[in-house]
Amino acid sequence: MVPPPTFDEVSFDSYIPDPNEPSQAEAVRKARDFAGRVASIHAASNRKSLFGKKKQVQGAGLYLDGGFGVGKTHLLASIFHASPAPRSFGTFGELTNLVGALGFTNAVDRLASNSVLCIDEFELDDPGDTTLVSRLLTELTARGVSVAATSNTLPSQLGEGRFAAQDFLREIKKLGSLFETVRVDGPDYRHRDLPPAPEPTAPELLAEKAAATPGATLDDFDALLKHLSTLHPSRFGALISGVSAVFIADVHEVSDQAVALRVVVLADRLYDAGIPVTVSGAKLDAIFSQEMLDGGYRKKYLRAISRLLALSRFEVPAS
């Protein structure tokens, strides 16, 4: 549970705030201060008393909220790098997968020694995850683990538009109370001053480019979607391991939500690994139907589009 390769070497100093967005410089300051608090809390929680018992210290929480491409993951990874070991970093989905694999009690015991748990793209897709994460963070912060999280939704709004939020309002408020919320405003840096989505590549040229790129893959879009349906999302990272570039033929709009959410996970893993994406067929900003973009998972789909467009502008490795 470490930051993806894209954020291996980031730091607070390498984050360049937009001078037109004062909240960004303030977010850097808050994140840097939080990392200092993490170190202090971790040291205090490991300090024994005269009776040989460790002192009980409550962990701190920081919640970075903002739109796409404002550098929230950069700041989260910077907190990870600046905090004392052991520490953990993962997406919300990876965290729930970890609890599922280890079991709740074992997961708490494994994570309880951390100075900080960094959770990227914090989200609540169903009531089970709401209760699970609420319990997990309550247990961990009580043991002195600090928690830093990013999301595109404020804590008080988590779960809105996805399930009966009023039934879990107490749990959601409990989650929100763990964090100091810091707003990060600004345009998506991935597309700042850039033209619209690139035009798709001609089919015959796509195959030619894929053949000329060492370590590249070439797949038909429908065949790829069918294969993804046979894998657990936690395996998507292994699927692209060692791949230098991804070429996808005959891309088209996806109208099935289960399929679309798999595309979101794949886009996240491709972006984490910094793998260029080139397609034929439809433009990458036309993958999700308008009905989906207007629904409860709107922010997931917009994030995926933002990341896929960024990957489509990455330079493909030369042969």
TrEMBL record:
Please give the organism. Answer: Nocardia macrotermitis
> Could you tell me the gene encoding this protein?
zapE_1
What this protein is called in its record is Cell division protein ZapE
- Sorted alphabetically, which SUPFAM superfamilies does this protein's record hold? P-loop containing nucleoside triphosphate hydrolases
Q: Which UniProt keywords apply?
A: ATP-binding, Cell cycle, Cell division, Nucleotide-binding
Q: Does the keyword Isomerase apply?
A: no
- Kindly give the InterPro entries that the UniProt entry links to this protein: ATPase_AFG1-like (IPR005654), P-loop_NTPase (IPR027417)
UniProt superkingdom: Bacteria
Q: Which GO terms describe its biological process?
A: cell division
GO cellular component terms given for this protein: cytoplasm
